[in-house]
Design brief:
Layout lengths: L3 E2 H8 L2 E3 L5 E2 L3 E2 L10 E3 L12 H6 L4 E4 L9 E3 L3 H18 L3 E6 L4 H12 L5 E2 L10 H6 L8 E5 L7 H9 L3 E4 L7 H4 L2 H8 L1 H4 L6 E5 L3 H4 L8 E7 L8 E10 L4 E10 L3 E10 L2 H15 L4 H10 L9 E4 L5 E4 L6 H13 L7 E6 L8 H15 L3 E5 L3 H10 L4 E4 L2 H11 L5 E5 L7 H9 L9
Parallel strand pairs: 4-5, 5-6, 6-7, 8-10, 8-11, 9-10, 11-12, 12-13, 13-14, 18-22, 19-20, 19-22, 20-21
Antiparallel strand pairs: 1-3, 2-7, 14-15, 15-16, 17-18
């Protein structure tokens, strides 16, 4: 946000002000005292394991210029006292975006069951060609992350890219009221959060809230390969852009698609990019990110960028240079002894797990084997056991040679793999999983590490990268 006086902030947030109203606050807004900067506004949020009010003094030590909280704390800077600090954060984000929209900001929202973070990262790098772009790092896609990212908008910011997640109906609508998107992209609808939504149809209803929030002058960017997303064209008053892999979409005022899709040995794909409708042309793209699923993510990013006036040549060039920006998403690293570690441990659902396993299969080296270290996919509800057995079975079908499973549904993963004839081991902790995997791996092997965020399996990937293969492991 631009620097504001403490008094003006109090007016915006309907807060009780303690301290000098003339004190300038900003431009940074933080919720973690460790990231406080000189002049920043520290928002003391109550947490499940810690209370932000207890860290106000630490934020002040790092230069924070004011504290926003639900109660007074012993600090010497201005304090803004509100009933609900989280609601105040939303109100602040809303005010920052509203002010910037009047000055020409373009607000863009991205949602989907999987791939939205990768799409957001690619899009931010494309839009950066045209102007200053604010986008979240990682998956800041909830009622905290979305407004917090919005507060990073300053005078001169041309694009705000927001990743919009949902755990229930109405969540995306609420986030849209904060960032007021003019362009909305729906990457896909899949099986993530089945435990919260109950069905894929209910998930689609929630994701479609994004296109319903768009103005008639805006753009809804839809995945024409996904039936649940295609039908969202009927739910929006905005213009429609579509994207697809392998063939031209059948509808859309702007159509974007890829042909001649080929992969290199690290599963980085090149393809011919085609566009028709409001922008027509073609170019060659060579992605630097791993996995065929990234082709669709890239096309979604291209469609959004083209609606903002970028040329095909500009998007093809920027896309061919774009890299992974968020940690633990198909990160490839080769150990000194040759083992290739694929760290995709940030999150998991049945769709992203399937994509990762298919990528693993395509990374097999001559005389090498494939190991999958997999953990729980959370929030799947009553279907959890069955979905985990299916992923274990899929691991067998794509040719995984060994499975190490960890978490509450490890036995189900192992059972599915066993039905397909693949040996597996159940680990009682991520430390044991890392130990089992380290003992099994040989220099020509490839290992995938993936699970939902709650299992923090990136630690397994870190251990494996630090290890060097010794004696031959068991097959």
């Amino acid at each position: 946000m631009r620097e504001l006086s403490a008094g003006r902030l109090a007016e915006l947030l309907d807060a009780r002000l303690l301290g000098d109203p003339a004190t300038l606050v900003g431009p940074d807004v933080v919720i973690d005292s460790r990231t406080a900067t000189p002049g920043s506004l520290f928002i003391a949020l109550p947490g499940e394991h810690a209370d932000g009010h207890d860290f106000a003094a630490a934020a002040l030590d790092r230069g924070a210029g004011a504290v926003l909280g639900a109660r007074e704390v012993p600090v010497t800077v201005p304090q803004l006292i509100v009933e609900d600090p989280l609601a105040a954060l939303a109100r602040l984000g809303t005010a920052v975006v509203a002010d910037a929209l009047s000055a020409g900001l373009v607000s863009i929202g991205i949602t989907g069951s999987s791939g939205k973070t990768s799409t957001k990262d690619l899009l931010a790098q494309l839009l950066g060609v045209a102007g200053e772009t604010v986008a979240p790092v990682g998956s800041f896609n909830n009622e905290i992350g979305v407004p917090l990212t919005a507060t990073r908008v300053v005078p001169g910011t041309r694009f705000l890219v927001s990743e919009l997640g949902a755990r229930g109906q109405g969540h995306i609508s609420a986030l849209c009221r904060i960032v007021r998107p003019q362009v909305g992209a729906v990457v896909n609808v899949g099986h993530a959060h089945l435990g919260e939504f109950g069905s894929v149809e209910a998930t689609a209803a929630a994701k479609g809230e994004l296109v319903e929030a768009l103005p008639a002058s805006g753009w809804a960017v839809l995945n024409a390969d996904d039936d649940h997303v295609r039908t969202m064209a009927q739910r929006t008053q905005a213009r429609v852009a579509t994207f697809a892999v392998d063939a031209e979409p059948e509808f859309g005022q702007l159509r974007v698609w890829a042909t001649e899709v080929h992969a290199d040995e690290l599963q980085r794909h090149r393809f011919n990019l085609h566009t028709a409708g409001t922008v027509a042309g073609q170019a060659e793209v060579r992605l630097q990110v791993t996995g065929r699923h990234q082709v669709g993510n890239a096309l979604a990013a291209v469609a959004v960028a083209l609606t903002q006036g970028l040329t095909i040549a500009e998007v093809a060039d920027a896309l061919s240079r774009a890299t992974v920006r968020s940690h633990w998403r198909m990160e490839l690293a080769t150990r000194a002894d040759g083992v290739l570690v694929v760290n995709d441990a940030y999150n998991a659902n049945p769709d992203s797990m399937a994509a990762a396993l298919q990528t693993l299969a395509s990374l097999r080296r001559p005389d090498g084997r494939l190991l999958a270290v997999l953990g729980d996919m959370l929030e799947l509800g009553a279907e959890s056991a069955a979905e985990h057995r299916e992923i274990g079975a899929l691991a067998a079908r794509v040719g995984v040679d060994h499975l190490v499973a960890v978490g509450g549904f490890a036995a189900d993963l192992a059972s599915g793999a066993a039905e397909g004839g693949v040996p597996s081991q159940v680990a009682q902790s991520r430390e044991e999983a890392a130990s089992i995997a380290a003992d099994w791996l040989l220099p020509a092997d490839v290992v995938l590490v993936k699970a939902s965020r709650g299992l923090a399996l990136e630690h397994v990937a870190e251990v494996l990268l630090a290890h060097t293969a010794g004696a031959p492991g068991e097959g």
